[in-house]
Every structure is written in C-alpha cells, then in structure tokens.
Amino acid sequence: MMATATATRPAPSGGAFAGHVGDTLALAGRHLTHLRRSPGRLILVTMNPLVMLIAVGYLFRNSMQVPGGVAYEDFIMAGIAIQVGLTSVGPTAIGVALDLRHGLVDRFRSLPISPASVLVGRTLSDLFVGAVSLTTVSLVGLAVGWRPHEGVLRTAAGFGVLLAFVYVMLWVGILLGTTQKNIEAIDGTGALVLVVFSFLSNAYVSVSGLPGWLRPVAEWNPVTSVITTCRRLWGNDPAGAAGSGFPAEHPGLVTAITLSALLVVAVVGSVRGFRRAVGR
Predict the structure, then answer these.
(1) Smallest Cα–Cα separation from 27: which of 87, 97, 99?
(2) For the chain, is the Cβ count within 10 Å smaller at the N or the C terminus?
(3) How far is it, in rounded angstroms, from Cα 203 to Cα 213?
(4) Where are the domains of the chain?
(5) pLDDT band at 1 (very low <50, low <70, confident <90, very high)
(6) Chain CA centroid to CA 205, Å
C-alpha cells in the first residue's frame, strides 16, 4: 500500500531539488520533535563542556598560568566551546546506528527519499542542539569571567567557526554510525575522540606547556587551529599558545582546509555507508 501510494505522489512544484529540501526539513523536524520529548542528547552535549568550564576554568583558574597575562577564563573558553563539537560525535553516531538497527530507516525504502536527505536532516537537527549548547556554555562563560575583546563582528565570526566545526563533527559521527554497528564500540570511540583531540591540543594549556615530543602533534592537531582561530577573533590568544610553524602562523587557513577536507570525506563515506546499510 505504501509503495503504491508513494509511487503516485505528485512531484513537488519546485522540481527534484525542492522535493529534497522539503524531505530534509521534514526529517529534521521529526528529530527535533523527538528531542523535545527526550532531551537527553541536549543535556549530554551541554553538560560535558559545562563541567570542564566550571571545574577547570573557574575552580582552578588561580592555579593556571597563561603566558602574556591573558586571564585563564579568556584563554580556556575556546577550548571549552570546541568540546561541544567533539562531544556531539558519539550521540549522533549512536542515533544513526540505532535508527539502522531498529529498522526505522527501512520505512524510507519505499519512499522517494534520497539517502542524502535522511542524513542532512539528522545533521540539521543535531546542529540545532549544538547551537543551543554553545549558547548555554557561552552564557556560563560570561558569568565566570570570559570576555571577548574584538567587537561584535569578530565575536560572531568566532562562533561561526565553532558552528562550522560542530557541523563537520556531526558528519564524522554519521560516518561512524553508518560504518560501525556496535553501540558499545561507538560510545567508546566517541569518548576517545573527545579526550584525545581536546587534550592533545592547546585547549587547556599552551603548546609550549606540553612535553617536547607532543608539541608537533598538538601544533598540527586541527582542533588547535580551530581554537587558535577563535581566540584570535575574540582577542583571547596569548603569544606562543599555538606553538610555532605554519599552523600557528596561519590557523584560519589550516582550519578552512582541514574542515573542508574532513567534511568531504565524511559526507561521501556516510552516504556510501548508509546505502550499504539499507540496501539501496
């Protein structure tokens, strides 16, 4: 019955592209409706950076020394905000894997919906979660002493970079969810991504404060470039915090190249993995 009904569904007046946009928005709305009924994902994505902000950025701020006289609350804020994207990898991957495991996506097989619409709809709803989490973390950051110093436009540009990072991480989560079916393994991988990429960067201490053999790793860690870009846009970046070399001198360029490359790889891999999983 469903296959017959959908086969005769009239084409959208705007053509195929308009139909894909409509499908994407409808699926994003479905995920947001589910989020309203079960807000656990929003709480998880928000609480992890908040705990780190309060525990490290506020309670231990008098014990941390930042070169250049920058207040530790200012220094740590970009590193805390980046955790919103890193924390999002696991929940998004688990959500996709559960949809595939429980057969929810099988219902779409008889509908003229492209795999891209299903996946983009997921990323849009999860990006909304990330934006709400970033807003909450930023407000708490302001309450504990963080201040941007470069004006409204550059402050907004910094948050734009963070949202771009969150969106790329969501596609990384979808890639993980479409290629790894074991929920426990996905959860462990998501936690590993959060710990490794945040601590092997300049999120909490400057690169010069890391052991010598780890400094090149931290300097070329794309998370370091994103954090440094935000700090410079906000006026929170002390000299030498990102180390030396090309990534430290051109963090914006490195951020644009690495995020673009990672997005292309994640999108292509996710669509292929989704097609294999649903047999399309």
Answers:
(1) 99
(2) N
(3) 18
(4) 20-278
(5) very low
(6) 21
